Each structure stands twice: as structure tokens, then as C-alpha cells.
Predict the 3D structure of the following.
Amino acid sequence: MWTLAGQGCWRRCALAAWATRAVRRGLPAPRPAPTRGAAAESKPPDRSYSSADRKEKIDMSRFPVENTRNFSIIAHVDHGKSTLADRLLELTGAIDKTKNNKQVLDKLQVERERGITVKAQTASLFYDYEGKQYLLNLIDTPGHVDFSYEVSRSLSACQGVLLVVDANEGIQAQTVANFFLAFEAQLSVIPVINKIDLKNADPERVEKQIEKVFDIPSDECIKISAKLGTNVESVLQAVIKRIPPPKVHRKNPLRALVFDSTFDQYRGVIANVALFDGVVSKGDKIVSVHTQKTYEVNEVGVLNPNEQPTHKLYAGQVGYLIAGMKDVTEAQIGDTLYLHKQPVEPLPGFKSAKPMVFAGMYPIDQSEYNNLKSAIEKLTLNDSSVTVHRDSSLALGAGWRLGFLGLLHMEVFNQRLEQEYNASVTLTTPTVPYKAVLSSAKLIKEYREKEITIINPAQFPDKSKVTEYLEPIVLGTIITPDEYTGKIMMLCQARRAVQKNMMYIDQNRIMLKYLFPLNEIVVDFYDSLKSLSSGYASFDYEDAGYQTAELVKMDILLNGNIVEELVTVVHKDKAYSAGKAICERLKDSLPRQLFEIAIQAALGSKIIARETNLIFVTKPGLYGNIWRKGWNQENKEFQKKQEVLLVVSPVIWVTQKCTAKLKLSGMVHDGEGSIHSLTISNYQKLSFS
Ligand SMILES: Nc1nc2c(ncn2[C@@H]2O[C@H](COP(=O)(O)OP(=O)(O)OP(=O)(O)O)[C@@H](O)[C@H]2O)c(=O)[nH]1
């Protein structure tokens, strides 16, 4: 691998930048990437032998439908979902109470490092109450808006939710969003006020908020401390009393919904299923509605929270199923499984997730293309909200354009690729999906549609070809103490937002609703909101369609050459400030080196911003040497060959590893004061690991 003296500093800078963003968001920064060996050690537990060999099978017929409850825990970020799940697992004997259990269901390395849930996790709990044995299927969900697709999918397997609210912070933006997801799915909602042990806890105020915003009588709230275990048993009892058993029919033919799946290299696809009708057991022949292929069931079981094989799974129960699906494309989330020769009406499945941001993803080395392709396929099986389109770039080679639900989602996906699949990638600057309405019949014929979606700014069509451009908008919810309202309104105005609603949720907390252009909030809005409200305001948003916008394509030029990977689309009114900001940011992110380079932003042929930087130029293969041996010696070779490599870092969106490469014509300094022009006809990659 190529190395460059001082490269560690690049990576430290990238990590430091991330850390600053993360701290501002209230999220812990990731630890430095593990070494290859360490990455392998921290992978999910080895599943190379069947769990059936390890454990006694459970007889699930002990749990009739009326003794079954399926529920999710939903809440704003950090309000204590996973801690409550720990206590429920302990109370029901699923995990050892004497151990210091912390967020047991957050199994992924990325979740433990960042202290956030990104994947919904299922656990089947066995609980005796009033002389009856109950099966309580719990799904712990993520709180961050970027993972709300996980929440909505989880709710499809439930009849009720525990809506956890922090007794100090009260209702926050994701509390509202998650409540409405549950409400629209017509689920029973049990409000749980958590963290009553905190010094500043004010559960009575939170009860009133819940009554006012959600219209739930305050006497329905359960006040607990998940951390100390205070009153947690009453939560289990409320689940039994207030959440109805599933409405299912065990005598009907099998109808199972695949609501999640993972890929195991030894056992193939492991599908998480919720049974709406019938029974399934080992040896059954099942058919997938999606592929119409038939499979033999090798294993069924429940998660308690680890895999626990069972003889059978019955309608109303939630568990896992392994059926020899060896290819990731065979197990689609939202698929319906039925018994061979007993076809059923498929279950509604899930609305596909709508990506909010797109970024190019490329292998650091093109020889890694196939490995990365396979890693992306396996990870998207487990994270079906990511969309993948093939893409290619002059400088970065063949790759993909991936759609994510937000920037945190993008960072987490990238981190999971590295940690779970040892894959390193180059990510380009994220963009939102714009639309353009084409003006001529010829173009419509060429594109085969009148309205096209642009997920790569380099392909943004010229104004002469379109009648109008459209930009995505979202309905944002902000909850804040009222003393910050003025500043927040100014921030929203600066982001071209239109106010839609405003209401007090208690005496001094306010809920604001704004329509935002998505590109105005996707990058740094949350950070700005947090910093001007001293961390007290919370924010959530939902898709609100598209609106007409005056958009322009902005090119970024290095020494007069357009760099395709840096092209962006901006609103006309913001072009100058955005161009200036990008040039300044690029200047800061390029190391000051040996010769001058112009960084310019342009709208068509008009230059609107310029910065100058000194750039390091070398020919392929000499990075390390140049730094050590000195410039002049190497420079003589440049003049001879006229073929050099320029290395900069245009990739502003870096996470664990930063890579960059560009093909560029430019000028080179000969070390004695004169500038020679040159054409770069070759380029190589450089990785900062
Ligand atoms: N004092 C106190 N702290 C708590 C309580 N419950 C949870 N916490 C703390 O709150 C923080 C967040 O708890 P989590 O359980 O990870 O919250 P979460 O809602 O699962 O977080 P996300 O999955 O990231 O949305 C942790 O530091 C917990 O220790 C409680 O009852 N009292």
C-alpha cells in the first residue's frame, strides 16, 4: 500500500473533525479503526455451527395466542430504550441479573462504540404472571431520525409500544415522530417516564406534556428508573394488561412476514419472521412470494436474546428461520413465506425507504471491486433502507451511488462495512436527490421520462434542457425551551424554511413545524441548532415531497480544470456563499505544499469564488520518497517524463479512512522558481489508513 509521510495527521484531522461534529450532536466519536486483526476479533459472534447443536429446543406450543404480546420500545435518542430492555431481559431471566448488563441488545460494534442503537433487535421473554406463562416479544428500536425506517418496520410485527420519555428532557422531536408512527399503525401506546432518579427529573411536567401533545391521560403514564430498576416490573404487567394479543389464526396455512434478515457466511440467510397465520417447523418446505423459490426449513427458533432453537413457531410468535437461502438477493425484507402448495395472499410488506442523501462509493483499489460488491450486498440485506446504483467516475473508477436516510446513516453504513466486512471505501460528497422537468420531446425520448431524478450532481442537466428544477423538501419538527425560539427562527429563515405551525407543549417549551428544503438541513443544520440552543433543542423531519426551486450547478476547478467529484448543485441565491465556503474548506483540507494551485467555484463560465493553495505534486510511486529525499532531486524526473500524479483530498466526507485521487492537468514547480505546465495522464490512489 502507498504511504505518505505525515499521513497519520490527515487521518487524525478527519477523526478530529468527526469527533467535533459528533460531540456537538451529543454522540460519542468512533474509536480509531481497529487493525485488521482487531477488526476480525470484534466481529459478531461465530455462527459457524448450528445453534441447534448447542441448546435444548423450546416447545412454543406452551404459549397460546392469548398469552402472547408483541411490542416495541420507541423513544427519542438516549431516553433509555436499551437500558429498559436490559432490565426487562433481567427480570424475565433472559440475561444474568448479577452481571453489569449495559445495552445488551446493542450487539453491533458500531452501536457499542457510538452508544446508539442503529438496528432494531428482537428478544422473546418468558414471564409468569398471575399463574400464567406469557411470551413477550420485545423489539428494541433506534431513536435517531436516520434509522426511523427500522422503527416503522419493527412496528409491523407489534400490537403495542412502550413510548419512553426522559423525565428531565420531556417530549422531544423523535418522541413525537415515533408516537405518530405507532398511532398511525393503530398500536396501543404505553407511555413510560424514565430516569425519575435524576436530580432534575420532573415526571409530573412530562405527564402533562404527554396529555397535551398525545392526548393520553396522565394516569396512564408509568414512572420508572430503568437504570436503577425502579418500578420496571409494572411495565411488564402493563404490557400484558394493556396490549392486546395478536389477531392471528394458527389453523390457517402459514403466512410469515420477513421483517429483518442477516447473512451468515456458513448458514446463509437468517430471516427474522413474524407469523401471521399457521405454523412452521424444521423440515417444512416453504416458498418465498418474492422469488417463488422453494426452500427446506433447516432451523426455527426465538431470540432470547441469543438464538434459541424451537420445535416450531406458531402464528402470533416472532422468531428466526433458516432455510438454505445462500444468496443475499433471495431474502427480501417485507417478503411473505408460505408452505409449499398452500399459497396465501401476501402480507402488505413495507413501503420502500426513501433515500434522503446520495453519495458515490468506490473501492480504494479497483481490484477490490468484487469484494466490495459482495460486502455491500450483504450489508444491504441487513440494512434494506440503503439503495444502490452502479456508477463510475473518471478518477475513482467503477463504483456505486448509494442512497442513505441521512448523514449519520451514511457514516454508520461505512463504519459497518469496515468493521464487519473489512472493506475500505472512498466516499464522495453527499447530495440530495433533485428533479428536473425536461423541456423537449427529444430529451424526453432520450431519458424515457419527462421528469428525471438527479442523484449525481455531475449529471445535472443544463437550464436550456429543462422547464423547471425541483428540490426535495421535508417537514421538520423542532422542540425547544422558548428562550431560544427567536434565534431558532432566524436560523430556519436563513435555511429558506417556511413556518407551518407553532405550539407550546408546556409552560416554557415550544414545538415548531417548518418546511425545509432538504439540502439546507442535511449537512450542518442539526449542529447549528444544537449549538445555538445550548444543546436543548431537538429536531426530527419527515419527507414532504418536492417544490420548484431555482437551482444551479456549481463546478469546482483546480488550476482551471473541473473536478467532477466536487461538482455540487446549489440554490441560485446561495451560490456565492456556498462557492466561497467550498473553496475555503478545500483550501483548509489540502496540505500546504510546494507549488501554487487555484481553487475556484464557477457557474458555467463565470468564476464566483477563488482561493489559492500550494499543492504537493509527485509522480506515481514516489510519495514517501519525495517527502524524505526532498523535492529538487525528484523534480528533475518530472520534467523529463511530464507525467505526474497530483494528490489532494477532495473527499470532504471522510470517516474512518480518507482516500483521494484526482486526474488533473496543471502546473509544476521545478524547485528553482519556474513553473512548467504539464499534463497528467496517469493517476494512482493513495490511502490514508
Ligand atoms: N440516570 C438515569 N440514566 C439512565 C436511565 N436509563 C438510561 N439512562 C442512561 O441514559 C443513556 C442512554 O440510555 P440508552 O438506554 O442507551 O438510550 P436509548 O434510548 O436506547 O438510546 P438510542 O438507542 O441511542 O436512541 C445511558 O447513559 C443510560 O445509562 C435512568 O433511568 N436513569
